[in-house]
Amino acid sequence: MAIPIDLRRDAAHSLQEQIYTQIRGLILNGRLATCARLPSSREMARDLGVSRNTVLHAYDRLKNEGYLDSQDNAGIFVSNAIPDQCLDYVADRRALRSFDREPPRRPDLRLEVTAPANVHLDRARARIDFWYGRFDRRNFPLNTWRRLINENLSRAGSNLSEYGAPAGCHELRKAVSSHLGTTRGMNAPADRIIITAGAQDGLNLVCRLLVQQGQKVAVENPCYGSAALLLKSYGAELCPVPVDHLGLRVENLAATHASLVYVTPSHQFPTGVTMPLERRHRLLDWAEKANSFVIEDDYDSDFRYDSPPLTALAGIDQYDRVIYVGSFSKSIGPGVRVGYLVLPEVLVQPALALKSLSSYGQPWLDQIVIADFIESGGYRNHLRKLRHRYHESRDALVAGLRKFFGPDADFSGDGCGMHILWRLPNGIKAADLVVAASKVDVGLYSFESVGAYEVGDSNLRKNSLVLGYSTLSPVEVTEGIGRVAAAVKSLAA
Amino acid sequence: MAIPIDLRRDAAHSLQEQIYTQIRGLILNGRLATCARLPSSREMARDLGVSRNTVLHAYDRLKNEGYLDSQDNAGIFVSNAIPDQCLDYVADRRALRSFDREPPRRPDLRLEVTAPANVHLDRARARIDFWYGRFDRRNFPLNTWRRLINENLSRAGSNLSEYGAPAGCHELRKAVSSHLGTTRGMNAPADRIIITAGAQDGLNLVCRLLVQQGQKVAVENPCYGSAALLLKSYGAELCPVPVDHLGLRVENLAATHASLVYVTPSHQFPTGVTMPLERRHRLLDWAEKANSFVIEDDYDSDFRYDSPPLTALAGIDQYDRVIYVGSFSKSIGPGVRVGYLVLPEVLVQPALALKSLSSYGQPWLDQIVIADFIESGGYRNHLRKLRHRYHESRDALVAGLRKFFGPDADFSGDGCGMHILWRLPNGIKAADLVVAASKVDVGLYSFESVGAYEVGDSNLRKNSLVLGYSTLSPVEVTEGIGRVAAAVKSLAA
With an 8 Å Cβ cutoff, is A198 touching chain B? Predict the structure, then answer.
């Protein structure tokens, strides 16, 4: 018997694979019936014009998978052990679904999650784009990176072929420890540091460790949306605490009965305000009294312009209550996916056990390169360079706002970081200005579009914008604010 | 007034930092009292023999952090706003804790987790080590890796400075899709693939999506310990289902009332048996009937020696019920931390949202290098080479066991993978043989030491060993089994 097999010599799949797939299809479609006899491998090879070995291998695979039976010298047959429900099998499930089956029932899912708005935006960018917290690719230390990677590659064979420590590579933990000591005033021994795939991954580990269904967790109002969504996805009941010009209003914490708080004291997101020392101490006191932990997300504290950085909350914490979340996304680039947690001693063992269960740690090469970058002093120089560039753009932004909107232009957060919060002139709505600016090729971002989380209806949501300046030169900033001023004028008219 | 400051010119910290730190310490220790007046910057600079700017910057930082107040021309004073509880602050918390404070209360932790036994073993290795599933560093494709990394590095500036898609880099998802099509018979479109930090990270995502407290989850008995521990850490109630010579006994599933099952059908861990086609179909039928998902962990299916690989469960799944978990840890090395999930269509959106919340995806460079490795055909050649080496070692192992323990030497799992399960000769206890072998520098591993999870007291636990051969040459395997045979002889005597 001849079998309808159609081989293509130019196809991506080998002849043997094509034979296998087509015979399997014929069996599953019922065109080759149970117990039907197939041509011998010799015949089939001759019919198809292929080597006998090609056919033998395809047959072997089909036998191995139970589609064919060979009875020694009696020949080769379609197996009679193929379950009935296979017999209308069609390789392409999408096709199948469209004509003869109901879609599968959707099983009960444990949770409905909302993805954050700020990741991987496929939006077209405006020519002058005030998106916040973006790393400018022109600042990526490519030559250093290339050198450090190549220096380490000779050791890649041994290091990539083994599981690393789930807590992260020792060299990097040590380097982060020393970096945090000099830049953030923290006494963070390497054994309390866990390397993560960025700040969000670190937050995720903390949430899994500490948050349970229905637990009250205090957050700044407004706050960083991805943190709020993550906490909620673990079942947290969020308790929004107002933010004033000095950050989270600590006196409002007691009433929340929260047992965990998430804060951004260096540069509050999105308002940009910095929490002063006195309030920091009161926050730590509250944590001690409430038997609570404080998550300190120090997302862009590397960039402070008018004074040295304030010591991190974790640096003045005498109660061992602060979980410090850091990342290289803002200083090297988010594509490297490396961040870290500094944990209170009491959390180190459980967090490590959880990390071992979850992901077995981060890729070795990325870690060792960053460790070398820090240890060689290159990272410090790199930060200095970035700080200098951002400083210039920040100055241009502040000057532009004052020039076009007068000395009373209302903004906060210009002391550090990569964005400011701008409260719009009276009568101008954020949503309208975003649209008007886009017409002159300027990208502006409202609370919604940066994914800020806010409960209640503050005027901020309606009347303010987050202005990021880290990818814009001073000239671009000035030009952009000029265009925005024109847009405001046209809206006001 | 003179302030007791002791500067070291050779110290790691700058003079400015030393001044800042020491004044802060004096204030917090109460040696500089609230409202005390400090020397002017000019005086202090003269006293210390440093430039006035150095002192000014230290003072500015202390003012900025609220430790000092300056009243215009009246001078500079210790702030009176420093909270009382700061005043016995000591920089080193460890020291603090040891002499005057109780350790912090340990807050209620959400879960007590057990870390898996098989990660990052710091054990000294025996000269001939039968540890399972290990990637031999001599097989790492170093030259290819170096070339691919350097080819891609010129694009690193733009790609590392952006967040990638949380699902993983498109090129890699496409490459995995095509690889799974040809090697595992799967129709896995790129948009159903999520790149993960290895198989465990993928499992973690699946657990978070599908497992809730008290949920019944069926597992093979015995099974892979890290999966069992992970499921339990999410609150799963494990339902162990016996494994026979054809894998999980599907007929026992109905009685468990489980709504999820975790299986290793290609090469059951740790027994090594392969589930035949007929039983695979019955497993899928059960899943459809029970409205359940099947997690297929295909951990070492790249290595099949005596026949082409059996199509994956996910390749014959007509119900869209199989969650396929794959990894490059066994084929490139666990240090690269890259794996993937192939999801049923109904789970893609929720899993992606969860992935976006959890980690924002994997590092770009590692992903693009693997994508290029696959697309160039290099990965296929690499797998072929590995398969050839493992095949030879496998042959040596089987021959060695037969030579020293007779034709009835009792083992399973030699058809594929990187280990076999060896049932010891009568009267020999696994624990004893492990000790005896270590004395002749041979590493043997029992169920406990490979972290296998087992409920009940099968004889396997006591009487069998997991023999990995992927890092041993045929000569080493033969030598090792010879030594083991001598150890068995001495134990039997």
Answer: yes
